[in-house]
């Protein structure tokens, strides 16, 4: 962890999140509102990106996310009932509460990134790096496939010339020209 975030910053961010995001499950908003209403609970909130199997973790998602709308992980058990989550928060107010928020654009949202514990910031940094590498690798693979296809056509053109097959030669030259036109 290592990063301290004030209760005021947490409150401001959660208010922004609730105002800007439409949640998949409205009851999930009640859990976040409960945290906002209780200073001592908000003190225990740690924003993260991974479920802590031995800790209390709340997961809330907006409608733009593919993740589950709400989940509360309580010491290796998954609970889908927001009312039970609120009850657990009230029963053990001194225990840390990890909060995972899923919404569109969170990887670029500076306010959100400032809330995250340092491990999660590293996770997002690596994710962005992975996406860039994936895009670059995809472009490279596509270029190699096109080059291979061109080389194959050139060899077939040579064979058509060797066999004096004018019809096949014209067909292959046309295919090569079409391939060049697509990649230009």
Automatic annotation (TrEMBL):
Gene3D superfamilies found in the cross-reference section: Uncharacterised family UPF0302, N-terminal domain, Virus Scaffolding Protein, Chain A
Residues annotated as transmembrane: none
Occurrences of domain IDEAL (ranges): 140-176
Name of this protein: UPF0302 protein M3202_12235
Family, as annotated: Belongs to the UPF0302 family.
Organism: Halalkalibacter oceani
Annotated signal sequence range: none
Ranges in coiled-coil conformation: none
Domain of life (superkingdom): Bacteria
């Amino acid at each position: 962890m290592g990063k301290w975030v004030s209760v005021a910053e947490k409150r401001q961010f959660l208010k922004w999140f609730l105002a800007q995001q439409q949640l998949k499950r409205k009851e999930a908003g009640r859990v976040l509102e409960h945290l906002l209403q209780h200073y001592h609970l908000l003190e225990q909130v740690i924003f993260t990106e991974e479920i802590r199997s031995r800790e209390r973790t709340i997961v809330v998602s907006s409608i733009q996310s593919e993740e589950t709308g709400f989940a509360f992980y309580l010491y290796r058990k998954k609970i889908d009932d927001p009312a039970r989550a609120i009850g657990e928060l009230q029963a053990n107010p001194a225990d840390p509460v990890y909060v995972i928020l899923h919404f569109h654009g969170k990887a670029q949202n500076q306010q959100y990134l400032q809330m995250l514990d340092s491990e999660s910031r590293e996770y997002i940094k690596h994710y962005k790096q992975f996406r860039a590498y994936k895009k670059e690798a995809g472009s490279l693979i596509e270029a190699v496939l096109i080059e291979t296809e061109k080389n194959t056509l050139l060899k077939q053109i040579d064979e058509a010339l060797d066999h004096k097959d004018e019809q096949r030669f014209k067909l292959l030259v046309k295919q090569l020209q079409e391939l060049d036109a697509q990649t230009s």
